[in-house]
Design goal:
The chain is mainly alpha-helical and about 190 residues long. The chain is about 80% helix and about 0% strand. It is built from 10 helices and no strands. It is elongated and about 65 Å long. The relative contact order is 0.08.
Length: about 190
């Protein structure tokens, strides 16, 4: 199908289905390309679907001209979506891991703190601790540290009577986490230092 015809079909309700089917034919090729770029299999369909919507909305603009092959244009959109998702995840993980590790700072000597915050092993220990804490503590701590919700919002989201109750529970969760961290970080410190 020629580019002009494809754009015309996307603009016409009666022929839109045929144009979308044509675009979906490039899914396998684009899927393989995205996986080579590091996309997980479960992300690929969502990213492709999002790129179809972006393509469709672009095609509705009267001044839109498609100068590349449709599959190439779609892949470019997918690549940008994937890159933005990875950038957002990396930024969020860096911030949340550092914030959460700072809560455990009293279990480590001051001169060693900077090194441990940047360590992949420390982040791995943190994930293990969160798993061992159980779902209620994990939701509370990730709500506060990762999602950056206020204690009032965390309390509402998790069904606590007040933000004071949520704060008290957060304190208890952190104490349990610190105990787990002390045992795990003792082993970790012997490996790291």
């Amino acid at each position: 199908m020629k580019n002009e015809t494809l754009i015309q079909f996307l603009r016409e309700p009666k022929k839109r289905k045929q144009a979308l089917e044509y675009l979906y034919e490039s899914f396998e090729k684009i899927s393989k390309g995205l996986q080579k770029l590091g996309a997980e299999e479960n992300q690929v369909k969502d990213i492709f679907q999002e790129s179809i919507l972006i393509f469709y909305h672009q095609a509705q603009k009267q001044d839109f001209t498609l100068t590349a092959k449709p599959s190439t244009y779609l892949f470019g959109i997918c690549h940008n979506i994937l890159r933005n998702k990875k950038r957002k995840e990396a930024k969020q993980n860096t911030l949340s891991n550092t914030d959460f590790l700072m809560e455990f700072s009293d279990t480590i000597k001051e001169d060693e703190q900077v090194n441990i915050y940047q360590s992949e092993e420390a982040i791995s220990v943190l994930r293990t601790i969160l798993k061992e804490l159980g779902e209620p503590c994990k939701k509370l701590l990730t709500g506060y540290y990762v999602d950056k919700l206020s204690m009032k919002k965390v309390a509402e989201k998790l069904g606590y009577n007040s933000d004071s109750t949520a704060k008290a529970q957060k304190y208890k969760c952190l104490q349990r986490a610190k105990k787990l961290a002390q045992t795990k970080l003792e082993d970790f410190q012997t490996i790291l230092f």
